[in-house]
Amino acid sequence: MMPEVTTTPRVGISGVEHEAKLERLWESEPGLKGFLGTVDHKKIGIRYIVTAFVFLALGGVEALVMRMQLAGPNLSLLTPREYNQLFSTHGMTMIFLYASPILSGFSNYLWPLLLGSRDMAFPRLNALSYWIYLAAGIFLYSGFLTGNGPNDGWFNYVPYAERDYNPGLNQDFYALGMILLGISTTVGAANFIVTAFRTRAPGMSINRMPIMVWGTLTANVANLIVVPAVSLAFFLLWMDRNFGTHFYQPSNGGQVLLWQHLFWIYGHPWVYAIVLPAMGMVSDALPVFCRRPLVGYALVAFATVSTMILGFGVWVHHMFATGLPGLGMSFFSGASLLIILPSAISVFAWIATIWHGRPVYRTPFLFFSSVILLFVIGGVSGFMTASVPVDWQLTDTYFVVAHIHYVLIGINVFSVVGGVYFWFPKMTGRMLDEPLGKLNFWTMFIGFNLAFLPMHVTGLLGMPRRVYTYGAYGGWDTLNLITSIGSFLFALGVLLLLVNVLKSLKSGGPAGANPWDAYSLEWSVPSPPPPYNFAVIPTVVSRYPLWEDRLGEEGLRSSIERGMLLTQGKQTIGTSGVDASPDIVLQMAEDSYAPVSLAAGTSLLFVGLLLKSIPIGALGVAIATLALIAWMWPSFELREREPEHG
Amino acid sequence: MSMGLAAYPLSYLEASGTRADHILPLTRYMLGVAILVCLVIGVLLWIAVRRNRSAISSLAIREVPLVRGPDAVRWISVGLTVSAVPIVIALIWTLTALASTSGPPAHPALTLDVTGHQWWWEVRYDSTDPSQVFLTANEIHIPVGEPVLVRLHGGDVIHSFWVPKLTGKTDTIPGQVNFSWIRADRPGLYRGQCTEYCGYQHAHMSIEVVAEPRAAFEHWRIAQLAPAPAPITAEQTRGEELVQYRCGSCHQVRGTLAGALSAPDLTHVASRRTLAAGTLLNNPGNLSGWIENPQSIKPGALMPDQYLSAQELADARAYLETLR
Questions:
Q1: How confident is chain A (646 residues) per 10-residue block, as mean pLDDT?
Q2: Within chain B, which residue ranges are assigned CATH 2.60.40.420?
Q3: Quick check: is A5 in a domain?
Q4: How would DSSP label each residue in A345-371?
Q5: What confidence category does residue B1 fall into, taking pLDDT thresholds of 50, 70 and 90?
Q6: Is A633 domain-assigned?
Q7: Where is B135: in which H helix or E strand?
Q8: What ipTM was predicted for this assembly?
Q9: For residue A277, what are the β-bridge partners?
Q10: Which residues 382-421 of A are in CB contact (within 8 Å) with B?
Q11: Interval B211-217 mean pLDDT
Q12: Is the pTM of this model over 0.90?
């Protein structure tokens, strides 16, 4: 027994007085303190989602401008300089500022609700993670808006990124911005991992966790392992550019391929990190619309983890053309082919779930079931690039552009929009419009496939990637025009989502606690959930706590109404890592200015590094230090300090 | 001998050289598997979605009763077993194709040093006899049916050497020497393209490979070895002078004072089919346009606009056209 536990929690049923007390304890203050200082995971989650959607829209507009330039051969809407910054910024935005943060947003919002907890394990760290993400996004975009955007692709190969070939501030913005963003990712990842292993409701043993938790957990373990590689890569680049360290400069003994290894050791696991949580959404939500549990839960969870483990051993498939030895590459080729098998587990589990279920065609179902097809199309094109000799032909053509968009839009965006339709009622208490939702789906689905399916052919006909224009000699004109038309249709579809959200925020029908008759814990609380999430901490005995009676489960029932009351301050229950047996009463942090101040100080330090201004950097360090002192100051409420009389 | 480009010059679904030939059946196999898998999954998904769909879709979702359903894990075991077969075939085939394509030939008929520059290709014909070594740019001639070793060098940033009808991609990386090899089975004109993003004019960085019978190749090679012919007319003489002092700080014209090596060798520029690394067909109009306004044709290219008078331009063009 840990010494901090000073009282045994009372168990009971919620009441009006109890809830009023919790409300007082958990509600953020109104006004500036509540806005800047809130540590409520739901508010932070929604901020993440809204911010990520803003970046999605920016990246989308960039894509549309590029598609106008590429609608026909030899067009000159954009100069090469503009085009190169646009395609690089588009990649950076979509991959780093949208695809990962949007999933952090959903996970931030949903995890405590899925897990039967009142907040993430480290609420202030959660706030810090968001503020630094926002700061890094603004930092990177202020480069773009001042004409200093990244101009070497999101992959940023040296030596083109070195000062000799790239003298502006472009690469300094990108390098420092990515290191800053890495801080956000890292603290977020640590928070998710501890949350998953520490704050699940009593009884939610590890084999009862939602698949989305498996996906996000796995992704964040990967992030902790690989983000240091890319932060190091960018740090060395920044040193090369500003202090002549020559890490990547062969004329002075450096190694060009060092960058590619460091980048892809991070970059490929990252691809899985931005699809596994999205696949988890599908695994959790699809069964609701099939009216039956997921087929092969254990195998799907296993597939999630094994995909990630294999995913650490495939990075060289981005480097098949770099002249590495054939024997070495064949291992990575083999791993890249084998990784298809765990992905196939999810596909077959989803199809079997639909096949043996009673599918109900609601908008989320349309999005989630279409993910299966888009995932398979993106998967089989990945299968082709896994073969070294075939990849020598495919790589750096539009075939790979089609592949990456089927993976990232097909799995990430379609799952996320499905997730918006599914969880919007929980977040806002209002339903999204169903007919508009169906129109939204079909516009996106047709637009997407019209844009990207023909692009495979464009690639097979040899059109190289990352070209600001192309000649009429290649036979690609019509295909590119079709792609440009499709991309505008797809954009219209995304716009319909925005219209639906704005319309439904005002006039959407009331959702009630559980509009989809779903099974997991978040649907047992009101919509939108109160600041404390659960009036009593539930106890869970199955994967489907709200479906137990109707699935004819034998034996015990989960206890939703009756549970630990925990009203002595902001409290939730800490449980053991595997079995989730109650272990400790956790005292959660109050709202605080420390995270936002630390984020501001850190960002200021990075501005100082960018401008090589010692005063600005020193001011940043000073603010960050003060914020850290305030943050770390031992507090009695959090049991970080013993009370005077025991 | 057909000297036009194919209808889809960069398509890799057809091959005209040994190395690309070895890859093509594997590419077709994988493409076939990929299409088949999409069709099978698409059909299964369609049936799954339609077969038990709730007839009462207008009602609230909670009125559709839950089913416990069969365990159905067989779907996964059968699915995985079926999936494993084409994957294992692909893996074995990949390794054998890799073995038969990766190594350069032991006794190449010809060895080339190709260097990627922003945004053109330097080509050096190597020989054990120094008098047989020469430089050219953006256009490679090879004898048909003979293996050619291509040593790849990085001149500035990374580029990638790719002639899809003959060979897959290999990067040219500063600080290391990579190897590729080509053997054309048929005479013809094969287009290549830089495929590693390398800056402003990555889009306009092509290379052409002319595969011709041995006799024609030797004829071309001997012509390339010769220095530039002396100017004949007064116009050409003025042109040579102009080229020496205006172009000679970057370009080389062997046999004249223009001796710099930081831009394409111009000794036989008039013999090439294209200008500016495949950007323009080499004809008098394009040549004048390129000399006068490279920055509007290929913005960001390292060649500055020249601001020549009409007379100077005519002189320079007259001289350059003699460099056959």
A1: 60 94 92 92 98 98 98 96 97 97 97 97 97 98 96 96 96 98 97 97 96 97 96 98 96 95 96 96 97 96 96 96 94 96 97 95 96 98 97 97 97 98 98 97 98 98 97 96 98 98 96 96 97 96 94 87 92 94 92 97 98 97 97 80 53
A2: 1-52+70-225, 234-320
A3: no
A4: HHHHHHHHHHHTS-----HHHHHHHHH
A5: very low
A6: no
A7: strand B134-137
A8: 0.96
A9: none
A10: 383-384, 386-397
A11: 98
A12: yes
DSSP label at A386?
T
Whose CA is closest to A318, among A233, A377, A385?
Answer: A385
Chain A residue numbers touching B160 (CB-CB < 8 A): 321, 396
Across B110-123, average pLDDT: 98
**φ, ψ at B155 (rounded to 5°):** -85, -35
pLDDT of residue B58: 62
Evaluate if residue B198 carries a pLDDT over 70: yes
| Two structure tokens written together for A288 | 């609701």
Distance CA A250, CA A257 (A): 10
What is the rounded CA–CA span in Å between residue B117 and residue B122?
A: 7
User: Quick one: residue A147, left, alpha or beta (phi over 0 = left, psi -120 to 50 = alpha)?
Assistant: left
Residue with tokens 């059946």: B25
> Within the 8-67 window of chain A, which residues sit less than 8 Å (CB to CB) from chain B?
none
Cα separation, B101 vs A377, in Å, equals 28
Sequence-distant (6+) residues with CB within 8 A of A145 are: none
Q: Does B130 touch chain A (CB under 8 A)?
A: no
Residue A351 pLDDT: 98
Q: What are φ and ψ of residue B303, in 5° steps?
A: -85, 120
Measured between CB atoms, which of B45, B91, B300 is closest to A334?
B91
Amino acid at A124: R
CB contact under 8 A, B20 and A361: no
* CB neighbourhood size of A408 (10 A): 19
Angle at which helices A211-243 and A100-115 pack, to 10 degrees?
Answer: 140
Buried residues in A280-301 as b, exposed as e (16+ CB within 10 A) = bbbbbbbbbbbbbbbbbbebbb
Cα separation, A528 vs A110, in Å, equals 12
Domain residues for the domain of A289 are 20-507
For the B234-320 domain, the top CATH level (class) is: mainly beta
Interfacial B residues in 67-106 facing A (CB < 8 Å) = 67-73, 75-76, 79-80, 83-84, 87, 90-91, 93-95, 97-99, 101-103
Cβ of A323 and B152 within 8 Å? yes
- Tell me the chain A residues in contact with residue B69 when contact means C-beta distances shorter than 8 Å: 292-293, 295, 356-357
Is B1-52+70-225 in CATH node 1.10.1370.30?
Answer: no
Does the pLDDT at position B211 exceed 90? yes
Omega before B119 cis (within 30°)?
Answer: yes
Per residue in B265-322, pLDDT tens? 999 999 999 999 999 999 999 999 999 999 999 999 999 999 999 999 999 999 999 9
Find the residue in A nearest to B62 (Cα): A517
Q: What is the CATH number of the domain that holds A455?
A: 1.20.210.10
The structural domain count of chain A equals 1
- B245: three-class secondary structure by DSSP: helix
Distance CA A422, CA A441 (A): 13
Q: Rounded to an integer, what distance in angstroms lies between the CA atom of residue B261 and that of residue B295?
A: 21
Band (pLDDT 50/70/90 cuts) for residue B56 is low
Q: Which of B172, B168, B15, B177 is nearest to B102 (CA)?
A: B168
Residues 6+ apart with CB under 8 A from B138: B120, B121, B123, B206, B207, B208, B264, B272, B274, B277, B278
pLDDT of residue A643: 53
Distance CA A44, CA A54 (A): 15
Would residue A603 count as lying in a domain? no
